[in-house]
Amino acid sequence: MKQRKNYNISGDPQVAIKSGNSSKEENESQKSPAVMEKFIEARETDTVELKRSLTLINGIAIIVGSIIGSGIFLTPAGVYENAQSTWGAIVVWALAGVFSLIGAICFAELGTCITRSGGDYAYILEAFGEFPAFLTLWVTIIIIRPVTAAVVALTFAEYAIRPFFLDAATPQHAPQLLATICLCLLTAINCSSVKLAMKIQDLFTAGKLIALVTIILAGFVYLFLGLAEVDGPSQTLERNSFAAPFDFKGEDFNYPKLSLSVYNGLFAYAGWNYLNFVTAELIDPYRNLPRAIWIGLPLVTIIYVMANIAYFIVLSPAEMILYSNSVAVAFGSKTFGSVQWLIPVFVALSTFGGVNGTLFSSARLFFAGAEDGQLPKVLSFIHVRNFTPVPALLFQVIS
Fold first, then answer.
1. Rounded to the nearest 5°, which phi and psi values hold at 54?
2. Residue 122: which residues within 8 A CB-CB, separation 6 or more?
3. How far apart are CA 253 and CA 261, in angstroms?
């Protein structure tokens, strides 16, 4: 993967190009003005580098798609149990969203001042120098990003398989095999085309938003049907998390547990800084980076708060805690009836898009580190036709 030679092209499109190419290429380029213009345009953009091709919609999809993964389906019970009240849990979800938005706004300022890829690493490098940036980079590439990708891919595999084995045990090692296939497939797509990777990101982000809106609507339909009963509110509504008090089991309110509640909430918002890892590929980052953040973070916060309200409408406090690792599945069993298998499909869609966003952004971090000499130089190589950081992507999936 060598960098192509830059060509010095000048003159009117109908004038012959003196670039040291073969006479055959010169003759081909002189056939018509239209052909000549395309030839000049191709040569003028011939530098092998990551191209600015990400639009505002792509930026929003990276933020929203990276944040909404498995968290909103798995962590609501942890937030509720440690907040020790329904309204306290809702406040924690809202505050976690505001806190993430503040962090994202700070990163928007940094991203418009330092318009290169790398995110946290690039900003620490500029502010504190090479050694702190080196430590950040290596911790991220050895532990944080590989573990994140693996966990989200395994979550995808678990839920993608579940609809096929509703009444039976999942085959041994099947989730690990499917997770591996997921990682390899998405890595191959990211190696082949940035546009294709972004189409997948846009598609699955739209899919997970539709899934969460469906859950929210199902919760409110459940509420209205219960309130509309002739004999008054159904017994199920009288036992839901809004009506029934939190079971303290004879203990007093535990204030230190609130920190665990906030931690669980912030975990579900992880990914708000991912767009900063690909700033160098964002079209007009001075405008689109802040816009994507201002659109994406409030949207996710609203969706998260409303989804938790839907969970609380349907599930009792005991059910919230009993099904702590599968709150969404318990919700689906009470609201979706015979099509409750849709919930695992929703989670699979959500996590698949999350894996794609993680792989796309992580590769740019490795690429940025290699450009600065913090990683082997080979990781900064770019495919000469696809303009994708293939070595960085391959290194990521192997690690």
1. -85, 125
2. 114, 116, 133, 368
3. 13
- CB 53, CB 283: distance < 8 Å: yes
How many angstroms separate the CA atoms of 121 and 368, rounded? 8
Q: Please give the model's pTM, rounded to 2 decimal places.
A: 0.82
- DSSP letters of 306-368? HHHHHHHHHS-HHHHHHTTT-HHHHHHHHHTGGGTTHHHHHHHHHHHHHHHHHHHHHHHHHHH
Please tell me the predicted confidence (pLDDT) of residue 288. 93
For the stretch 171-187, pLDDT in tens is 888 889 999 999 999 99
Alpha carbon separation from 337 to 209, 233, 301, 341, 384 (Å, rounded) = 21, 20, 28, 9, 52
Of 130-139, 140-149, 207-216, 236-245, which range is least confident? Answer: 236-245
Answer left, alpha or beta for residue 387, where phi above 0 means left and psi between -120 and 50 means alpha.
left
Q: How many CA atoms lie within 13 A of 373 on its CB side?
A: 2
Hey, how many other C-beta atoms are within 10 angstroms of the C-beta on 245? 9
Q: What are 355's two structure tokens?
A: 């894996």
The 10 Å Cβ neighbour count of residue 379 is: 23
| pLDDT bucket at 133, cuts 50 / 70 / 90 | very high
Burial of 18 (0-12, 13-18, 19+ CB in 10 A): exposed
Secondary structure (3-state) at 282: strand
Interhelix angle 120-128/130-139, rounded to 10 degrees, is: 160
Whole-number Å distance between alpha carbons of 381 and 389: 6
Q: Which residue has the tokens 């690990």?
A: 176
Closest CA to 203 of 349, 54, 360: 349
Per the DSSP assignment, residues forming a β-bridge with 256 are none
Do the beta carbons of residue 141 and residue 369 sit within 8 Å? yes
Residues 36-59 pLDDT 10s:
554 444 444 567 778 888 999 999
**Which two three-digit tokens encode residue 171?**
């085959």
CA angle, 244 then 245 then 248, to 5°: 140
Percentage of the chain exceeding pLDDT 70: 83
Distance of CA 129 to the CA centre of its chain: 29
Instruction: Give the residue among 56, 76, 96 at the shortest CA–CA distance from 347.
Output: 76
Contact of 314 with 222, CB cutoff 8 Å:
yes
